[in-house]
Amino acid sequence: MAGENVLPPPPSTSTLLNTTGGVENNNNNNNTNKTSKDVIKYIELGDETYNVHDVVSMKAPEGEKPYIAKILRFDVHADEKEKKKADKNNEDKKETDEEIENRADKINVHVSWYYRPEESASGRKAFHGEHEVFASDHTDWVKASTIESKIHVYTLADYQELQSVNEKSFFSRFAYKAATSEFKPDHVQVFCKCSMPYNPDLFMVECGECKEWFHPECIGTSREDLDKNLKNSDSEWFCDECVRTHKRPKIT
């Protein structure tokens, strides 16, 4: 039966992401009296526009998965602002990749990191989805040149509604405090005989009577057999407990 279970306590030490400092941003401003402390809502790098609150993938060391972060704000060097003013009458000029990279090195981006399960102190568990990440309170200033692309981090409910997912589709159901290795919420509903929290990557079947969900391997069958039997019988599936106590027909 479904119940409540406390997440296993994390180790005493915390594994934090390695990040780099620096950054930049670019935005047209009509007020010439504004300074680098002004609020900048977006930057344009090449053909892409990045806004405050966008979630992005960021460059990681070779062999590692890209970092994931939410943009909190931008800061632009004063000389970059003057350059943008000088270029205002030449907006059709196409920047080279080198020019974009050099400009991005002058843009500072304040970000909050998303942690992959294996980057947290307690590590990856069986119920963590392949595309699961944790929102965190860990923030840094980084260079805009480390941004790779926009991605999407959904709630678990919205992620389940997606018709397809790709390398830019993620979901988050936990918030992670990096300094203390704490999770919010610290309790999570569990399912199946294995008492495991829901993993959207793993197929589950619902009992038509008790409405509990089960992994096929936990009830001694397979998804293929379940699909075949349910299709042939045009009926609901019932777990062994409901078959025993309520005399529900067992589909074989």
TrEMBL record:
Low complexity composition bias: residue spans: 13-34
Recorded GO MF terms: chromatin binding; zinc ion binding
Keywords on record: Metal-binding, Zinc, Zinc-finger
Region of interest (Disordered), ranges: 1-35, 80-100
Domain BAH: 48-187
Pfam families xref list: BAH, PHD
SMART domains linked to this entry: BAH, PHD
Record-annotated PHD-type domain positions: 189-245
InterPro entries named in the record: BAH_dom, BAH_sf, Zinc_finger_PHD-type_CS, Znf_FYVE_PHD, Znf_PHD, Znf_PHD-finger, Znf_RING/FYVE/PHD
PANTHER family, per database record: OS08G0421900 PROTEIN (PTHR46364)
Protein name in UniProt: PHD-type domain-containing protein
